[in-house]
Amino acid sequence: MAMGAQVIDLPAMGAATVEEPAQDYSLFLHRDPAGQAEMAFAIEGVDCAACIDEIEDAAEAAPGVVRARLNYTTHRLTVCWDAKAVPQPAAVMAALVRAGYRAYPFEADRLEAIEHATSRHLLRCLAVAGFAMMNIMLLSVSVWSGNVTDITPETRDLFHWLSAVIALPAAAYAGQPFFQSAFRTLKARSLNMDVPISLGVTLALGVSVFETLNHAEHAYFDSAVMLLFFLLTGRYLDHAMRRKTRAEAGNLAALKATTANRIEADGTLVTVPAAAVKPGDEVMLRAGERVPVDGVVLSGTAAVDESLVTGETLPRRVAPGEAVHAGSLIHDGTLRLRTTAVGEDTFIDEIERLLDKASTARGRYVRLADRAARLYAPVVHATALLSLIGWLLAGASVHQAVLIAVAVLIITCPCALALAVPAVQVVAAGTLMRHGILLNSGDAFERLAEVDTVAFDKTGTLTLPEPRLAANRDVPPGLMNAAARLALASTHPLARAIAAAHPDAIPVEGAREVSGAGVEAIIDGLPARLGSPSFCDCEGLAAQRAEQEPDASLVAVRLGHQSAVLEVRQALRTDAVAVVEELQREGRHVALLSGDRTAAVAPVVRTLGIADWWAELRPAGKIAVLESFEARGRVLMVGDGLNDAPSLAAAHVSLSPITAADVTRAQADAVFLGEKLAPVATALHVAARARHLMQQNLTIAVVYNLIAVPLAIGGFVTPLVAALAMSGSSVIVTLNALRARTGVPAAKEAP
Amino acid sequence: MTVLLYLVPAALCLGLLGLAAFLWSLRAGQYDDMDGAAVRVLQDDDLADPRGRR
Q1: Is the interface score ipTM higher than 0.85?
Q2: Predicted local distance difference test score (pLDDT) of residue A160
Q3: Which CATH architecture group holds A468-569?
């Protein structure tokens, strides 16, 4: 590399008045049969009860709106327009901005809709099981107390029949989730936890009906229904956690959703959601915008920053005929693109191929609960069978032996086991959410807890996604102020970095763009310029600085006779050094895998004290390095670029910042918010604690079985004992799970 | 013990009533916004302001 530093033209955009294109949100509008139009928005800035009124009033004041309803839990607003009026989403959004809130058009994805329906079904099953459990218990307690006093056999039979009338339909309805899942698994010639559950419930009900027919003292209707109730609770908790994280992720996706300036057939420009653009459409891109689709350049030239695509921080010049990828940032110039791919199809072929391969490898991981189930089902069934044979050999009647075998099946049914993992997951996911970490997958905890190697990407992960102005000690304040004022007139990313560092600068009037060079204006009677070094006559100084600082981008500024060169570079996240040090102190191996130039990676590695690093890696190279790590231990990959997507899928577990490319975020097990790196360490701590509690819970469940099973085999388990044992162990496990709220280093709340 | 003949059905009917009420409230969307319901109850925009302004 002869010359590491980049020297870039800096044209002004802000000075020229660009007319705002019309907006088209018809993609998000839904019409109900009555003709009313409805649209959902994700709202940013809802933080108090008074917001509800303000937002709903502001939205309802917009023309044609009949109803606006804010969901305070999910921060989503549903607006309904009159059938006769023309829906104007832009008017509602403008009204909300005036009220101080930002609204983003929102479209619930299909997966979220399915999850919502499933969770409602689970809740209905839970309600039915709860109703049946309470009413049968009313009858059972009467029978139990009657058995030790003076209940007549006729009354007992009546109570048992009544229990049967409640239990059989209730179990048929509330047991659906288990029966269906068990059936599917058996059809696939496999075993899961639902097989022993379904078998236990069915046998318990069958035997109870048989016993009732024979006027027996005991029936197990209450046990069967109570079992379903506790198991459904566990299942619902598991579901609720995933639904909540998905809803949160859906809002974030709406907040991040990109828009595109589509060129219509008549040549006008219309702003549409990126999702409305189809392959073949032409879109217009201007400096400072992110490319929303894959496309081929029809006209115009520009420098594009592809750091989110390849990790490379040096911009690339594109000319007509070349391809531009979604996620790239336009530095300067204007492009007219013909769309080739949109949305989830915006893959680079290489990435797509690697991703397919990596995802199949990930599928091999078996969840803790499933591993327990594989061990569990055969053991339970064998125990029940053995006790049946044992009692028969010992000379018991067939009737007595079957009763005992069924008691074994009931008592071992995995109530506590089914609650052990989801209860901890729900509580721990809540803790993570408070720290600004959103989970994509429920089993991420187990995998996070096993991590001993942390591999970071550099650009956008260890560094902030936007470039920052480096500290310039030797620049006079007057010159710096001029640079900041001129920078406000440009949309160039480097100029924005300068402007961001000086938020109180006042825009200069009459700033003029010099194409391909920079911005100039008159400040306090002196000619002032901001742009490429040649534009400001300080090439010598720039060349000298470029040698010292090979990883920085240089911008020159001149005011009268004074001139200076400013460095803009990818700055590390503020707590990156501390977090890397903490991870290393805990005995974890930290590595850095970057697609960027060696010259840009080396200083970062030096600052952070990472011994193991690779630069200029292709996506396949990153996977190869990860595989060499996996041979020794478990790897957590943290990355944000499109080029990281395959390695995120290949790693044992993965994290990405919320600013990551869409494809990449979808591959990550969890997403973290904010400008700090601390969530990486927090996620590891919370996961370690959650895993500890899960194991503790599983131990409790096992100990419970160790005590209960011998009792059942011995024939001492009456319905009363079964009820006490099952509810007791479930309550203990749930209470233990609540401890996941505590014991995580505080002081790391999300910003 | 003939009292059971109407006490037990009465208990069951009450239970069923509760179940029906829950299923209705679920269908009516009362569990969609748990946090919102808690704060909406504090709003007094349903009262007419005596001074004629909001």
Answers
A1: no
A2: 93
A3: 3-Layer(aba) Sandwich (3.40)
